[in-house]
Amino acid sequence: MERLKKLLNPFLDSALPIAALVLLVFIPLYPKFPALDVPGTYVKVRVDDFLVAAALFLTLLKFLINRQKAMKVGINRAIILYWIVGGVSLLGAIFSLQLVFPHLAILHFLRRIEYMGLFFLGFFALRKKKEFDVFLNGLFLATFLVFIYGLGQKFFGWPVVSTMNEEFSKGMLLRLDVWARLNSTFAGHYDLAAFLSLVLPLILASLIKSHSRTKQIFLGFLYLFAYYLLLNTASRVSFVAYLIAIFFLLIFLNKKWLIIPVVGLSLLGMLFSEDITQRFVATIKIETPRLAARLEKTLDFLSPQGSSRTSFFPTPTPSPTPALTPSPTPLAPVAKVTPGGSRPTPTPTPTPLLSEEEFWEAQKSVELGVEHSGGIRFDYEWPRALNHFKKSPLLGTGFSSLGLATDNDYLRALGETGLLGLLSFLLIFLEGIKLALEKGRKSWQAQAMSASALAMLANACFIDVFEASKVAYIFWLLLGLTVGYLNNEHPKNS
Which among 104, 127, 169, 101 has a CA at the least distance from the CA of 9? Predict the structure, then answer.
């Protein structure tokens, strides 16, 4: 056995860094073309699943050889604990509650392991501290190419591969119209926006800490490019997550004097994006009272039966709900490109000024979209998650029992895996905070990753970001690389 370990270790020490670097570049760039169908759902098995499976097999071998070293790190134990709780919840859902299709529940559980398993790939892949920059450079190169492809979609009609509905998920080639929000190489604008809010703090931290003038220029332009893409996704949640991450990053890096110019210019730049500005205005007008009303209902739901509770929010004045009629909206559907057919190349032209009537019609359409988006969350998905939590408070009703989306990862964890599942999931981040405080106070890499983790946690309030494969892959791999970096920096205390 010892001889086998001596033979495997050198091979794994060389293979795992290559696998991590390839995935950091490949995953953001490769569109989500389907490879295999899964019965009962339109979620497909894709090429990246096979690459990740191969990388995880090598990671498993490394873990078995070095399990004692790995299990000394608290965040590693927390991830495995979450898997154990998820497995127990899965068994209860299949054999006791019987509220799920077994093959779908198992698939959802395995995908959680697949996403989070890349943490251990990153943990073992980093052998020397100076290698961390190599992985970051690979990610930054991929981000630049994502920007280039996004420009191609916006101005030259380059195709989109989306999974926003069942038909699109079959691998259809689509083309964005003038009003559509950018996807680039991602499956939807929300995925792209979440990825950018994750990467932007890493770019800014590298820019601040770099001593190379050439690299500073490249990173400065890359930051502007990524920010431009973020605006073109018009994602309110990810834009707020980006602001939160940047604010705390500058505090972590002791660059508080940069907060006002960086955050101020970010907000100023938002004003030049009509789409995202309109959506924020519509959010304040429509979703704020709806959110207050939903919070009241949630507090009533969680209060003991028969108890009285003082209302914290004024009762919102009811307003008529606009009917969802098929009228022209700024977010017009994309057009299909037929295989082998010709596609007209759009010519960029200046956007004409809207008349007053057209402006208010566009604003009404944006409000209709915001109303629809909020209604799905507040009136259907979130109450459904709480109802499932009520059925099984400790272990939930099982993976896949809430369908494909809840648009809130915390409520999703609560409904699918119960209180134990949510707490074990949050324990991962508590262990991460503990590690950052103990070993990462002087590491800008750890500080940048902490800010990116804050962006993920903020996104998770309104998006199932930890189930978005491209974003989840990148996040867990980067987190593993960061923990591996800190572990190599302080080997005696690991």
Answer: 127
Cβ contact 232:426 at 8 Å: no
Measured distance between the N- and C-terminal CA atoms of the chain, rounded to whole angstroms: 25
Q: Which residue has the higher pLDDT, 407 or 168?
A: 407
CA distance 290 to 276: 20
Per-residue tokens: 166: 């069942």
What's the CA gap between 364 and 330, in Å, rounded?
10
Kind and range of the H or E run holding 145: helix 132-156
**Nearest to residue 157, comparing CAs of 345, 412, 386?**
345
Apex CA 137: angle with CA 118 and CA 55, to 5°? 25
**How open is the CA angle 25-29-34, to the nearest 5 degrees?**
120
Please give the Cα distance from 246 to 208 (Å, whole number): 12
**pLDDT tens-digit profile of 14-52?**
999 999 999 999 999 999 888 888 877 777 888 899 999
Query: Cα 370–376–382 angle (5° rounding)?
Result: 125
Backbone region of residue 340 per phi and psi (left: phi > 0; alpha: psi in -120 to 50; beta: other values): left
* Number of neighbours of residue 166 by Cβ within 10 angstroms: 10
- Residue holding tokens 């309104």? 462
8 A C-beta contact, residue 385 and residue 414:
yes
Alpha carbon distance 174, 302 (integer Å)? 44
Q: How confident is the model at residue 178 (pLDDT cuts 50, 70, 90)?
A: low
Determine the angle formed by the axes of helices 288-302 and 356-376, rounding to 10 degrees: 10
pLDDT at 323: 40
| Summary mean pLDDT of the chain | 83
In the block, residue with structure tokens 């009272």: 289
CA distance 397 to 410: 15
Quick check: helix, strand or coil at residue 36? strand
**Beta-carbon contacts of residue 198 (< 8 Å; ≥ 6 apart):** 452, 455, 456, 471, 474, 475, 478
Q: Residue 6 and residue 321: Cα distance in Å, rounded?
A: 68
User: CA dist 112 to 27, 134, 342, Å?
Assistant: 17, 27, 40
Where do we find the tokens 């939807």? 188
User: What pTM did the predictor assign?
Assistant: 0.84
Tokens of 14: 């060389």
Q: Which residue has the tokens 């989070």?
A: 116
Nearest CA among 480, 491, 392 for reference residue 78: 480
Closest CA to 295 of 275, 309, 274, 285: 309
Integer Cα distance of 243 and 221 in angstroms? 19
Query: Which of 61, 65, 31 shows the shortest CA–CA distance to 46?
Result: 31
